[in-house]
Amino acid sequence: MTRWLWVRHAPTDPGGRVIGHTDIPALEPDSDSLTRTAAMLQIADVVLCSPLARCHTTVERLRSINPALPAPLFDDGLKEQHFGAWEGRPYSAVSAWDGLDLRAMADLTPPGGESFLDLIERTKRVTARAGAQFSGQTIAVIAHAGVIRAAVALALDMPPHRGLSLCIDPLSVTSLTDHGDGGWAVDHVNRI
Description:
By secondary structure, this protein is an alpha/beta fold. The protein has one domain (about 1-190): Rossmann fold (3-Layer(aba) Sandwich), CATH 3.40.50.1240. The chain contains six helices and six strands; from the N terminus they run βαβαβααβααββ. Strand 5 and strand 6 form a beta hairpin. The radius of gyration is 16 Å and the shape is globular.
């Protein structure tokens, strides 16, 4: 049995712009939120982290509250969905999203980027690799809302577009347990 504790990074201020792979900093989170999140990670044996600054800052702030939290292992596979040519553009300037339902949104591939379906496949590779390497341990992952949505969709074997409807707040923890026989349990989603 391998437990996964998925943490969304601290809040950011993207200024109404698309920021998937765009490397923007995290805002300074309030200490109460950090303390609650750090407490939920006390059982972590290993920490994986997206290399983007907002995640790197978050894990360092969590480790300042909980020094027993292991040093993070950075994994490019944990980056947010890549929005290609749309990166850095205002959401209002991306008309390709207008009028799409969730199924079409999940399948939409930005020019030079990846779709949510692609993100699910990337997340699947990361969880398979890390799950094999750290089998039987508790793995904390500091990542992004899209990656966490993808992980829940995989665990529940749900239609991919349904993952887009999940609310994943900054500094929330989503707990998934891999029972090792192909069965997963969703312990909680978006706990703050």
